[in-house]
Each structure stands twice: as C-alpha cells, then as structure tokens.
Amino acid sequence: MSWQRHVLASRGYLELGMFDDAEQALEQIRGEDKTQREVLHAALVISLAAENWDRAVAIAADLVKAEPKNPTTWILLAYAVGHAGNVEQMESVLFKARKWHPRDPLILFRLACCASVTGRIEEAKLRLEHAIDLDENIRWLALHEEDLRPLWDWISGLE
C-alpha cells in the first residue's frame, strides 16, 4: 500500500476517534516516505487530537523547519508548546513566527491570548486590535476565546 493510502486510512480512523488505529496506519509507512510532509501533518493532527503534547511539539518543530513559510505549522507548534510547557514558551514560538509572518492575524491573535493570560491586558488589546485590523473575523474568534475573557467587554465596544 502506498504512503498516501496509509495517510488516508489514518484520517478515517482519526475521524472516528480511533487514535491508536490512526497512528498504526502511519506506522506502516516505510523508510523515507515517513518524512513526507503529508505524513508528518497527519501525525501532528493525531498527536494534537490525542493530546500527546510532547510528540506534537516534536513533529510540529520538524514541520516548522521544513516549511517556515507556512504560518499554520507555527501556530500548531505554539499550541502544542503551550499545552506541553507554559505560556512564555508559547509566546516565544509566536514571536519567532511573527518574524516570518508579520501580518498573519492568527499569530497576532494568539500573541494577544498570551498577553491576556499573563495579565498584560493593555498589550493584549494592542495585539488584538492589530489582528482585527488585518481580519475582521478575528473579532468573533476573540469573543469566543476564554483566554480573552477579560477583554470581552472591550472587544464588544470596538468598531
């Protein structure tokens, strides 16, 4: 079976919540095919869904090295780091991501979340306002993000 079919099978198992089976499907991939980006992405999604944070960090770090121009891999790395470690480490990853993607609204949004949960409310407001300026949909996201609860009244008043 080709590595693509293993990835497809893995996705099917994942949709059913069968994390072990999803991982086993990827483990059947041989040799150099294990380093295909699609395989690594599938492994990352499984690790995140299974809340295997350390594994998710390792895979996401490899993906960031392989494709630093993809903002999604940076955001997923930050998410995994945040769950595996602490907010300061997550924020550090996001600052590195911002160097590659200075106008990515989701990176700015996540930086606002980091500032908010560490009590830096004015900084969180500035970051969030910049993110909303780049993408108005961030406002809705912010109003549903628990990390930004202290800013919800302020966000509602933004125009």
Overall description:
- It is a single chain.
- The protein has 159 residues and is mainly alpha-helical.
- Helices cover 72% and strands 0% of the residues.
- It contains 10 helices and no strands.
- α1 (3-15) runs antiparallel to α2 (19-27).
- It is elongated, with a radius of gyration of 17 Å.
- The model has no long low-confidence stretch (mean pLDDT 93).
In short:
With 159 residues, this protein is mainly α. Helices cover 72% and strands 0% of the residues.
Contiguous helical run count:
10
Global structural class: mainly alpha
Average pLDDT, to the nearest integer? 93
Instruction: Output the helix-strand order.
Output: HHHHHHHHHH
What general form does the structure show?
Answer: elongated
Strand proportion? under 5%
- Record field, number of beta strands: 0
Span between N and C termini? 54 Å
- Our Rg estimate from Cα atoms comes to 17 Å
